[in-house]
Amino acid sequence: MDAKLLLLALCVGVGLGFLSLAVRQLVTVARLWVRGVLVTGTVIPRIAGDRRRSGLVTFTDHLGRTVVLDPGAYGPLRGLPPAGKTVPVVYPRKRPTAARLWTPRYLLSPAFGWFLSSTLVFGAALRVSR
Predict the structure, then answer these.
(1) CA triplet 38, 71, 29: central angle to 5 degrees?
(2) What is the C-alpha to C-alpha distance for residues 76 and 56, in angstroms, rounded to an integer?
(3) Given its phi and psi angles, is residue 113 left (phi above 0), alpha (psi -120 to 50 degrees) or beta?
(4) pLDDT by residue (tens digit) across 6-40?
(5) Closest Cα partner for 102 from 64, 44, 62, 57?
(6) Helix (H) and strand (E) counts for the chain?
(7) Structure pTM?
């Protein structure tokens, strides 16, 4: 089999995979917007021995239980305010452990990353096809 054709098929397949992940992320955000429960959470600091810079978010779910959300290592880059501030949190009904911050950067940055990755791979496919 021709190596150029194999590389082209690989780039197109990976690009379509990245594009489907981006669409999946956008569908998840739309589903949260339509059916999600929006609550207000409070940012708390991490314990002293933890090396990550971002804080944790605590909120109460629909049953009154306290839930802790870890926004991940990129929390400050995605719009997490400093400790002590409040932030909107959204979660699917009856699933507070699947909560996400309700900020545009936190919700849409993964989709943007997948779209950018698929664009780069499709560009590589165009370059290989010449």
Answers:
(1) 45
(2) 11
(3) alpha
(4) 888 888 999 999 999 999 999 999 999 999 999 99
(5) 57
(6) 2, 5
(7) 0.78
